[in-house]
Amino acid sequence: MRLKPGVSAGLFCLLKLNIKIIALKIIHSVHPEDFKTYDTQKIRSRFLIDELVQPNTINCTYTHYDRMIVGVANPTDKTLELENYANLRADYFLERREMGIINVSGDGLITVDGKSFQLKKLDCLYIGKGARSVKFSSINASDPAVFYLLSTPAHTGYPVVLMTNSEAAKVKAGTTSASNVRVINKYIHAEGIQSCQLVMGLTTLQNGSVWNTMPAHTHDRRMEVYFYFDVPEGQRVFHYMGEGQETRHILMNNYDAVVSPPWSIHAGSGTSSYNFVWGMAGENLDYTDMDVLSITDIR
Ligand SMILES: O=C(O)C(=O)C[C@H](O)C(=O)CO
Ligand SMILES: [Zn+2]
User: Fold this and answer.
1) Do 152 and 170 have their domain in common?
2) Ligand 1 first shell, C-beta below 6 A
3) Cys staple from 245: which of 66, 123, 225, 299, with CB 3.0 to 4.6 Å?
């Protein structure tokens, strides 16, 4: 069959399979030697995922770090359905993928293959490989949910699990003298919600504390993404990245995410207190598998 001028054979095939062509931002991997030469703008273009929250939209970015997809569903007065992306070459989004979702704003509802789960702020839903239909809605359009989602390739289907914030495993960390008193909340991890490779949780900072993840660490076995929220208007978080002896910073606004390659530290200090979701994928599900740097060795 003759194709219209400008329609490639691959695109024609996707159209025939009835896969919608929805824009997906792509983030490629960076070598640490190259990173040393990057200026501010290049660091931002390679690692920052901003403008994530778009009303009545599911906004996803595909990273080539362990093929992690980072996104936000922000239903206001409409129900949003997770759509398929041509990049996945799958029949549906979760055909070969799993997903973790944390609500960071108003109360919301997620319906998975007809079963509904209500998520208040800081609750988490895990959806295993094979779920065909995922729909997002808000309880109150004037205080809509902001569903932050991470999705990674999966080899088997684990059950859908809702974990409220009070059920998450909590670890207190930090001291007031180091301005880093915080609670690490673990949801999807080796001893929590079972997954193929996704590890996910969030950290809340005590009012007055501004530092996260200091002493800093790397984990060459896993990439990581931080998503900052509850950053007050007019404030920012200085997020530090790079190899321990070659660090750079990137300024983060509320609802910005930043990708951390396996060779990079990931730590932050805010101009006020804030919270953030962390999520990882890669070689193992062991939260404690970290190579911690001494503060005095960081450059
Ligand atoms: O504040 C912290 O410390 C963290 O939240 C650390 C992250 O959970 C992390 O980087 C896990 O690898
Ligand atoms: Zn980490």
Assistant:
1) no
2) 173, 182, 184, 203, 212-213, 224, 266, 278, 280, 290
3) 299
